[in-house]
């Protein structure tokens, strides 16, 4: 196995591990306080971690179309819960951009992804499915980056949460760049760029982990 493949797999493992840590943290928080946002974040990060498995498999081995279809469902659930968790924190009750938009986005993601799997030749799926689905999912990551940045700007400069929430926003920006790389340059960029962007994405996951747990970035 080449060095870049090892780096890629290591990054997928790092991303999955941080996602599962965040999932456990938020699900435990939900068990104590019964906050809908904690449940949504917990489920979102749990599916995020599971989604790393089909992504890593597509990148390294041949997998069947049914397995890819399951991967699309997992990724779509990740999108649903991560976006919904963010919307609960940043949009008012009754806003179109909470429950309604979350469901619409979930359905759009799953329909587009399953159409990719259904109508793309098996030998072309790795080349087309990962970029197409990742591009759709990346919109949620962009929304998270923007929303956390807006919250950090509203806090007083002497509020210690401001720096932590800014780091979370920066982490989502790194994840966006990683997702954008997969969507645009998948299997076409040099190995050095592959390694650099995957490492950048993993740094983003670590920043999100630090801010959301240590800094309590999701608390009002």
Number of domains: 1
Work out the number of β strands: 0
Quote the distance from N terminus to C terminus: 46 Å
Sheet with most strands = none
What sequence of helices (H) and strands (E) makes up the elements? HHHHHHH
Strand and helix layout:
Blueprint: H1 3-33, H2 36-60, H3 65-90, H4 99-119, H5 125-154, H6 160-185, H7 191-214
Helix pairs in contact: 1-2, 1-7, 2-3, 3-4, 3-5, 4-5, 5-6, 6-7
Provide structural commentary.
The structure is a single chain. The protein is mainly α and 220 residues long. It has one domain: Rhopdopsin 7-helix transmembrane proteins. It is 83% helix and 0% strand. It has 7 helices and no strands. Helix 3 (65-90) runs antiparallel to helix 4, helix 3 runs parallel beside helix 5 (125-154) and helix 5 (125-154) packs antiparallel against helix 6. It is globular, with a radius of gyration of 17 Å. The model has no long low-confidence stretch (mean pLDDT 84).
Key terms:
mainly alpha, Rhopdopsin 7-helix transmembrane proteins
Brief summary:
With 220 residues, the chain is mainly alpha-helical.
